[in-house]
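Morning - calcium ion inputs below, output right after.
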Amino acid sequence: MRLTYTSDLWWKNAVVYCLDVETYKDGNGDGIGDFRGLTQQIDYLAGLGVTCLWLMPFYPTPNKDDGYDITDFYAIDPRLGTLGDFVEFMRTAHDRGLRVIADLVVNHTSDQHPWFKEARRSKDSPRRDWYVWSDKKEPDDPGQVVFPDKENSIWQYDRGSGQYYLHSFYRHQPDLNVANPEVRDEIARILGFWMELGLSGFRVDAVPFLIENVEPKLADPHDFLADLRAFMTRRQGDSVLLGEVNVPYKELMGYFGDGLGDQVTMCFDFIGMQRAWLSLARGEAEPLASALKERPRPPKDCQWATFLRNHDELTLDKLTDEERQEIFQAFGPEEDMQIFGRGLRRRLPPMLGGDLRRIKMAYSLLFSLPGTPVLFYGEEIGMGENLAAEGRMAVRTPMQWSSEGGFSMHEPVRKMPDGPFGPERVNVADQKRQQDSLLRWIQLLIERYRECPELAWGTHTVIDSGSPQVLAHRCDADGASVVVLHNLGRTTEEVELKLDGLANYQLTDLLVDGTTEVSDKGAVRLPLGPHGCRWLRASPPEVAPEDASVKSDSSFTHPRRS
Ligand code: GLC
Ligand code: CA
């Protein structure tokens, strides 16, 4: 595959790393992470091999929803630093070849935002229409309430002005009204501002809520997304929108802009993520295999973003009640581990019982899935959750840099977990020195993922492995192929694969040493240990494995479909 494609469309095989400045590294010793601290860790991130940082909200905020409640879209939360610190951070990140995207939270503002304060002053306020109002309380539909821990309605009475305002999330997060052209212009201005300061794009919060809950309804709400994307592309051709769109596959394609691909550049694969968890719980390939088969191909130049955990609850909302219960039973049987009736507030390693072999297999799976992998900070060292923290904050504890914590010179404001997942046993410094650590494994996976652009760019096919516990798939692009196997079960398995078009090829192991020949009939037998995983590069006998992927051709235009 021609590698210049991967720099033009950098996001298609990026490795995204999500972090919160507040919990990453404290640079000034006040117990709260900040941009100066983060900047000092840039070489760690570059060394890990990630290519794009996603910063969770860093804007001024009353912090009632961990920064997803913003009072100024054009500034930095003073606890995290200044605009000057931000620019220094951006410059250092760019110098190390890292791109940066940030959360764009414009479905709503904080109720403390000056816009909302002005809007609620009176029904005639010039900003009134920036939010969504109703004279009467709309009937409550429990299905619409996102945070049932605190809310039972999405309408809140505003005593001063005598109307109800819409809040898709918490009541302190009034929804902005993107039906108002001034609001749409302001959103574009926000994007423009941060792009001018070096951002390569945005992770767009709550996309379906953003375009649907407006008044009057937009003729075509998707036009707004297409306009926003066009605006960005005019300013910076390779900027991206990474959308939080947790809807069924069929509906989701509209957010990419269907065949046009002119709206959200990348969408998180929430369905694939939930099925992957079901596969992990059952020790069976089928749930994930069927998701991979159902998952539509993204439009040209668009991509799926794959993940196992993020900063929110591990949502299981797209599974059946029985399937959800299976996962609860396997990975979060105690009530305190569950949240909102639909998810788990845990991180992956404790859920997998700290079994390093199984944890390594889960991440190998993530990196081999067709798409762009997204890591949540701390996943690379196997951090656990702190259930003593409230709600979703359980997984948003400070980064564990050393056995003493290493996050701050002072007592961290947020608490790290105690016990087997505390910093004494799980930290960066120790794992850097251990060749078989999770950190080294993730580094290897990132290296191999980047060396195998077929995984992200190619067509993928699930192969029948003959074993219910083994997921086998292959990715092909421009005549190059990678074959990948994962044993979700606890027992050793030997599988026989039929590899069309690869008769007499050599398969070279990319994670450990070893080679296997494909027979002249295109068949191969491969053993896999308990929770074993293998990535195999196929090469014709006359080509060295390291040359089997990188074939350059003379054309500067991308292949339509490989
Ligand atoms: C998204 C975010 C979540 C936040 C919510 C409201 O779902 O991922 O963390 O609370 O939007 O902004
Ligand atoms: Ca600080």
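Note: The first strand starts at residue 16 and ends at 19.

O.
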